[in-house]
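Here's what a typical entry looks like (3581_t:CDS:1):
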Amino acid sequence: KIWGTNANDVTTVIIHLTTLQGEITTAQGAINNALNILPETTATEITTKLTTLIDLRDNHGAGGTPAEQVA
């Protein structure tokens, strides 16, 4: 026994940690990509940009709701 557990348990933990490491690496890559797109950007600036993008998506930049845009 290793650390009071059997070798299969240790192997299982290693597999899970390796998977987690890969997921963390992927997440870090996504974070780095976002930071490269928005260098030195504050949370407030990101919120403003996100709000603008959502408006463009939903209302074609017209502001307000789609019903207001049609009106």
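The chain has two domains: 1-37, 41-71.

More examples are in the samples folder.
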